[in-house]
Amino acid sequence: MAGLVQCKACNKEIAKGVKKCVGCGKDQRNWFMRHKIMTFIGAIIILVIVVNMGGGSGEEKVAATNGDVSTKQTEKTDTIYNVGDTVKDKQLELTVTKFEELDEIGDPSFLGKKASDGGTLVAIQYTMKNVSDEPVGMFSYPSVNLVDEKGTKYDSDIDGTSAYAVETKIDDSKVFSDLNPDISVSSVEVYEVSKTRFAEGSWFIKIGDSKVQIK
Question: What is the C-alpha separation between 196 and 173, in angstroms, rounded?
């Protein structure tokens, strides 16, 4: 008979479109119809996921289409300093005054430092001046690291730095006391890196967010 379907549970013929079987009481609606609220929430979640996978908002797509112009412009306007230039970092002014590449520092058998096999010692001298009106403690000093052209950052070699400070006799940096306004001190850092890598590409001293090109 037209307009009749079988019950999903007892197979009794019932009118098409009824919610429950008149015989056994089984709900004839599918899961989505029985849980409309959950179905709606699920549809929203799926829509959000699809939008995110599609590349985000229209503004983001425009930025990607334009090759992220804003990022490129920022990179182009980054200032690269040279040895001898003064770099301002918050309350301080720093100047890399000298750079040299060494195989050894002092007497390696007595408080000196010799480069490891395949390595080279990159030594710098720099000055730091407090240009603010307040004392500056050591914990407010900017980081001073060696950086290659790929952005890989190298920390200083403690033994090499100590040996270079003794040999040059120019390190009068403040360690346990504050650097007072208008006072300038000298300091040194030594980094040990691959000799082959250092011979290739450009290298920088990164002071805070600024770069000083040494090679």
Answer: 32
